[in-house]
Amino acid sequence: MTGYNPEDEGAQMSFAKDMSYIDYLSLDPILGAQNLQSDAHDEMLFIIQHQTSELWMRLCLHELSVARDALRRGQFQQSFKMLTRVARIFEQLNNAWDVLRTMTPSEYTEFRNDLGASSGFQSHQYRLIEFILGNRNRAMMKVHEHRPELHHMLGQELGTKSLYHVVLDRLGEALDTSFPPEAYQLDAPHKAHDAVAAAWVTIYEDPHAHWHLYELAEKLVDLEDYFRRWRFNHVTTVERIIGFKRGTGGTSGVKYLRRMLEVELFPELWNIRGAL
User: Fold this and answer.
1) How much is the pTM?
2) How many domains does the chain have?
3) 204 inside domain
4) Is residue 36 a contact partner of residue 115, using CB atoms and an 8 Å limit?
5) How many CB atoms lie within 10 A of CB 191?
6) CATH of residue 254
7) Is 36 within a domain?
8) What is the rounded CA–CA span in Å between residue 132 and residue 176?
9) Range of the domain at 143
10) pLDDT per position as a tens digit, 48-92
11) How crowded is the C-beta side of 156, counted as CA atoms within 13 Å?
12) CB neighbours of 132 closer than 8 A, spacing ≥ 6?
């Protein structure tokens, strides 16, 4: 029996002059970016877990930015596809914690000191995702002052409406109403507002009359649902591996992460469920 030769079926086998898979994906720099600081076996897992998370977050930012632009133009269907994709990305990020949890506390201590002061708390992409979604806090920018371009990027985001602010614009248009300035805080976390909650109650009490906004609301709830699960899995993973030690970046570790579980991105959409 002869061996299979893909060239017999027309597959291209030489890439001396053409773009290859490795070239297109820039795999050489990506696969060479795992710069281990120790001889610990599990450091490779730790680095790849965080690098791949950053890649997924980059895609989140791409999708959220375009979804917000689509909503500014009133293109609801286009935004639905992107918001659904972001929710699925966070499902993927959730699954990644299961891989990291195969590392035991003893294995982590073998290289933890080699991390220096580096911490996921310093992820500018995660911070930008939170800013776009509405959990805004100017004080969180300070950690990026040593990188002026990143600090500027975050500052620019705080100067524009969040995704939820744009949603509120479309909600107000549909109901021929407007919301007070307190509902549009640019550099502070969004807080539940009675007028916004009342508007969403109108949508949910007659979804067929405002189906595009009803569906949009559920897309946002779905997204936040997966985002909350990601935060919860983050807390349990950290507690499982380091207990209640302080984080490498100086945060209180699990205590800080537990406080983040209380954050609501779209509070009115959760609160109205008990009012219907």
Assistant:
1) 0.91
2) 1
3) yes
4) no
5) 13
6) 1.20.58.480
7) no
8) 25
9) 42-110+123-274
10) 999 999 999 999 999 999 999 999 999 999 999 999 999 999 999
11) 6
12) 61, 64, 65, 68, 157, 162, 163
